[in-house]
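Take a careful look at the protein record below. Let me know whether the structure tokens fit the sequence:
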Amino acid sequence: MKVWTEKSGDARTVPYPDSLRQQLANWMDVGRGMVYGADESPYLFPTRQGERISGETVRYVVTQAAEESGLQEVYGTDVEGRERALVTPHTLRHSFAVQCAKNGMRAPFLRDLCGHHDINVTEIYLNLANDDAVDAGRKYGPQA
């Protein structure tokens, strides 16, 4: 599936589990047309107000879902006094990348998957995965 990236202004291919294939096909073929009258839209989530769902709506949906599931925490405020939530769309992206690194995905593949232009940005995820491995080694490894 192609996903548009506002930051870089291009699209990249994003994988999804085979278990979602049928649900996505049903949504594309029937659901979104019935709900939004958007049979021919190139976007997965069109809206009545615009061509596609906004970043702000995605942030709202993710933070609301985290709150309703009891996972959300507020960890501070920004310079404008708005509360900062722990679980955000970027948290999900970051968690996905770290898990890919933990599972052994090599840096060039992870870079392409995340849409990073600089491999050094991708290395951050690999370092976090390595730190987890060291912590696990300390916890589960031989004790003196």
User: Anything to note?
Assistant: Helices lie at 21-36, 55-68, 89-102, 107-114, 119-140.
